[in-house]
């Protein structure tokens, strides 16, 4: 019988085993749903909304067009039949250009030289001139500029209706920009020439790039794409420019250079076109197409104004061989000592006959790309060191403020402000690294990572402060007496009508009630305000990162009020900040150093103009640090009037009646933490009664506090009465408040001890 029972048990166990139970066996996934899911993922990974096919078609069309243009241009150079004809040059255009900027001359190589490669970044001051105004008939007493007669002759007979239509496309104010950013790349002539030369030319180079302008009133950006020729001997650059990202036709470059350079420029254009065609063909064959070519640039509204470009380098006082040595050291650093880099200085002019205006470029200063990349790397190293120091100071402050008592003194808004600033710096460094590419982008990863790490720790510390200080804002618990009265009144009402049953009214809540209930549940969450604030901060950071001037202005405003929340909390709570002076002063100095680099230093990598409001900002921030220090010396509310400086504080040691002297145990009660009795020294109690004749219940506060002790020893304030009327030993409460700032019995918030 036992054997049979064991056998039945074993069979039941085998049937109910997980591996043999057909009910609990995992059903195979439907193959159709898996196939659809995998296909959807592959579609998301490989789909470019048709971008790849569009890019291939655009590349093929561009390649076909370039081959056709190259063939016609080569035939034109050979003097055979061709569909290409170089437009006639406007004879008044060159004199008008040189009336603004004089052409350069060849220099003595032993005493002076020009930069041979202007690949880099240049900032110029921009001046707008309207050349459609008939200056010759101007009746003002102001003397006419030298270019006025030439402009009148050039624009004579112009169709003003068509001119206004070209300029007004897109509603862009051409006279608004005051600054122009020039970003160009230069390439020497190829090693093979169309006609008779097999050696590379070192006196001429092709230049291409873009020029960016911004309307200071609306923030609208305007871009020009240019192609040009740089003649190294006299430092002159001739070229063409078109609005947008569409490059000008480089076959027209021979028509804008002076007559002695036309043949040389024509020979230079053909191999450059062949090189671009070969590069385009290689991209199409390898499939490494740039999807950025797919844009609506042609459909965007921009003024249809073709421009003629002339730029002239200013000579330097450095001999040519020393200048070549300097440029070689910039490209390939070897550590040798060279002359100081004088920087690129340039002036120029942009003329548009079709639209009747001139942009004059003055006071152009810039740096070579290699020197700028070195500046970026140097900045990245210094910024990483600054953020590392900030991270160390924060870690030391977090180690000091690791108790609820110290955390209750701090203001979370000061740390949230720093977290927001660091998130903006993180986004800016990442964006800058993506834009720069190359080696500088690798160096910018270090400050970006440290800024992100600092943001995480500051946000975490702010959340911890919020959690500790959350009971301060909690609503008081309703008194139980009210509930008791309500219950009694309810019982009375029920007793008043015993024969009438209470109606069961249950109606479905309306939509507004549901929405109100959901809203109250969400907003009543303890951390709702904090997470909502962080979400708004993140959206705010993403939005302002798109427009750097706004980001700098916001950062300046946040830095100006960095320590104001801490000053306010200290004065309101009647307690000092508890911040280490090492952290306070160090953080202020380091953050001002970062702000100084971008807001006051003219040689910053972003070429941001110095802001006059930086120095008042720094003075305000230093004054805030001084106020916090004075709060520690003279009191948190020393700067307030006396009627406002008295901060009400809770007294943990109020007068308490002593127990009956006839009682066997002289105790005020049990401690709510250690559960031991809070004893009163009977000797002191009797001595007090016999000396002054007072009853124990009539003792004042001073006499009582000298008689209450834990056990039978001590003469200090060893009892503490919380606002919730729970009694503790002072030592026990001090140890408890070092961990939490709520009552261990009722969980209500406790004020500082």
What's a quick, concise take on this entry?
The chain is an alpha+beta fold.
Task: Explain how this protein is built.
Helices cover 47% and strands 12% of the residues. The protein is an alpha+beta fold. It folds into three domains: 237 residues, no CATH class; 218 residues, no CATH class; 104 residues, Zinc/RING finger domain, C3HC4 (zinc finger) (Herpes Virus-1, 2-Layer Sandwich), CATH 3.30.40. The strands form three sheets. The chain has an eight-stranded antiparallel beta barrel. A two-stranded antiparallel sheet has the order 9-10. Helix 3 packs antiparallel against helix 7 and helix 11 runs parallel beside helix 16. The N terminus is likely disordered.
Give the percentage of residues in beta strands: 5-15%
In angstroms, what is the radius of gyration?
A: 41 Å
Q: Give the structural class.
A: alpha+beta
Number of alpha- plus pi-helical segments: 24
List segments where confidence is low: pLDDT < 50 over at least 5 consecutive residues. 1-26, 194-198, 293-299, 475-500, 686-716
Termini Cα gap:
75 Å
> Based on DSSP secondary structure assignment, what is the total number of beta strands?
12
Oligomer: single chain
Average residue-wise pLDDT: 78
Strands across the major sheet, in which order? 1-2-3-4-5-6-7-8
The shape is elongated
* Percentage of residues assigned to helices: 40-55%
Number of domains: 3
Largest sheet: 8 strands, antiparallel, barrel
